[in-house]
Amino acid sequence: MTEPPLDLRARMISTALTRRPPARPAPGFARPYAAIVAMLDVLLTDLREAEWTVVAANDDWDVRDLVVHLAATDGLLAEAIEGRGSSACDVLDRTREALSRCPPPQDARLAWRRRADALCDGLCEADADRRVEMGGRRLRLSDHFAGRAFETWIHADDIARGTGRTLMQPPAEHVYPIADLGVRSLPKALALTGRDHADRTLRLILDGPGGGQWTIPLGRAATGDDPPAQVRMDVVEFCFLAGGRRDPTSVEAETSGDPAVTRDVLAAASAFSGP
Amino acid sequence: MDGDIRLRQRLAAGDDAALQHTYDHCSTLVYRLALRVTRSREAAEEITQDVFVHLWEHPYAFDPGRGTLRTWLALLAHRRAVDWVRKEERRRRLLDAVGNPEPAAPIIDVIIADETGARVRHAVAALPQRLREAIELAYYHGRTYRQAAAELGLPEGTVKSRIRTGLRSIADTLAEEGSTS
C-alpha cells in the first residue's frame, strides 16, 4: 500500500509552526502559562475585526482592552523578575497608560504575544522558588506564573463568551496548578475578607480533569477537625469561582460539615481575583 | 472520543507534539484518500500537508461532538481533493482549447476558470501587438521565456513582464464579458 513520503511529516510540521507558533518552551512551572497564552492567541486569530470591540469584561473593557490589560500585567511580572516590585494599583495604572496609546487590535495582540513569549524565555527550573513582589503580592515565581495562567484563562473565557464562542478547557496538567493555587490561597482569602476560621480544617474535592483532593488548615490554630468541613465541586467551576466569574451562593457545590465554614470558603474564594 | 477531545485541547494549547501524534495516526489515511481521488502524488502530498496545517491553525474547526478527528480529517481531505480535480479539469480544457499542453508560464486563475477557448483566442487577438506576440510565442508556439526573448530580440525580463501584462489583460477581458453576458 502507498504511504506518504517520509519527508512530508517534517515539511508539514515546519509549515504549521511557521503559520502558527507553538506554545513557548518553558520550565515546568511556566508551562501552563505558555499553553494558555497559545490557547488565547488561536482564539484571537479567529476573531473578525468587529469582534475586537465587543465588551467582554469589567463593565466596559472590550477584547482589545483585555489583551492590553494582560500584556500590561505580564510586563509587571517581567519587571518583578528583574527586581522591580509593583503594587496592586500599578496593575490598573499600567493598563490605563497602555490603553491611552490606543493600539490597533492586531498590534495589541502581537505585542501581548511577544511579551508573553519573552517572559518564558530566560527562565530556568530553579527560578520556581524565587520570591518576587508583583501587584502587591510577594510570592514564589511558580505561583506568580500560575496566577498569570489563571488570569489569561479567565479573560480568554470572557472573550470567547463575549463573541459567542465556547472556550476549550486547557489540558488537565495545566488546570491542576491553577486549581492548586486557588486552594492554597483560601486561608489568606478568608483572612482578607474577615471571615475567621483559623482553627478549622477544610477538605476540598475537585472533580474532573486537572482536579484532585486537598486537606488544608484554614489557619495556624487548626487542630485537624474530624470530620473536617468538606466542599466537593467541579474543578473548572472552582477555578471560575476563584476568578470571580461565579456567584458563590448559587455555584454548584456539595458541602458537608460546618455550614458556616463551607459558606465562607465559597464566598471568600474570589478574594484575589483582580480586574 | 475522549482521546479526540484531549488532542483538540492540546492542539489549541499550542502543543506541537499533539500535531505530530495526529499526523502519525491519520496521515496514511488522508494521503491515500487524496491520492485515490486526484491520482497525483504531488497533489496528494499538498492536500495532506494542507489538511494537517489547517487543523493546527484552526483547532476549533473540528467539533468532537459531531464525529471523530479521523473522519473530520478524511472529509476535509476529500473535499480538497475534489476541488483539486475540478480545477485540474478546467485547466486541461483550457490548455486543449489554446492548443498547447505545456505553457511556459502558469496561467492565472481567472483564465483557468474560463471554460471556452474561443473567448480566450478572441481576447488574445484583441491585445496590443507587443503583448500579443509574446503571449503567442509562449502559449501557442511552446517557446520558453528565453527562446521567446531571443526571437523578439528583447531581454528575458521584458518578455516575462509583457506576458504577465498580457495575461492580466486577457483575464480582465474575460471577466468583463462574464459579467455582461
TrEMBL record, chain A:
<protein>
    <submittedName>
        <fullName>Maleylpyruvate isomerase family mycothiol-dependent enzyme</fullName>
    </submittedName>
</protein>
<dbReference type="InterPro" id="IPR034660">
    <property type="entry name" value="DinB/YfiT-like"/>
</dbReference>
<keyword id="KW-0670">Pyruvate</keyword>
<dbReference type="GO" id="GO:0046872">
    <property type="term" value="F:metal ion binding"/>
</dbReference>
<keyword id="KW-0413">Isomerase</keyword>
<dbReference type="Pfam" id="PF11716">
    <property type="entry name" value="MDMPI_N"/>
</dbReference>
<feature type="domain" description="Mycothiol-dependent maleylpyruvate isomerase metal-binding">
    <location>
        <begin position="34"/>
        <end position="160"/>
    </location>
</feature>
<dbReference type="InterPro" id="IPR017517">
    <property type="entry name" value="Maleyloyr_isom"/>
</dbReference>
<dbReference type="GO" id="GO:0016853">
    <property type="term" value="F:isomerase activity"/>
</dbReference>
<dbReference type="InterPro" id="IPR024344">
    <property type="entry name" value="MDMPI_metal-binding"/>
</dbReference>
